[in-house]
Design goal:
The protein is of the alpha+beta class and about 80 residues long. The chain has 2 helices and 4 strands; from the N terminus they run ββααββ.
């Protein structure tokens, strides 16, 4: 703690996005970093083939500890995120 959690989407909401991700969630100790990284990462995702490259980018951002991305029926996770059923 502290923990900043931010999300970005290219398919939900009114904001302009250059990607097609349904949702990107970023975890960081800084909410500002999480917000910027979520937007930048979501902009990189135009198809499921972009998931690995986009999450590799997200984790490379200083301060990002975890990243999750969804496009269609595809979900990818990298870093310090625990998925619970």
């Amino acid at each position: 703690m502290p923990l900043g959690v931010c999300a970005s989407s290219g398919t939900v909401g009114h904001s302009l996005s250059f990607g097609r991700a349904d949702c990107v969630i970023i975890l960081s100790k800084s909410a500002v970093v999480a917000d910027a990284a979520a937007t930048a990462t979501a902009n990189l995702i135009k198809s499921k083939e972009d998931l690995k490259r986009a999450l590799d980018f997200a984790i490379s951002v200083k301060g990002v500890t975890g990243a999750l991305a969804i496009i269609g029926n595809n979900l990818a996770v990298l870093g310090n995120i625990e998925l619970i059923k």
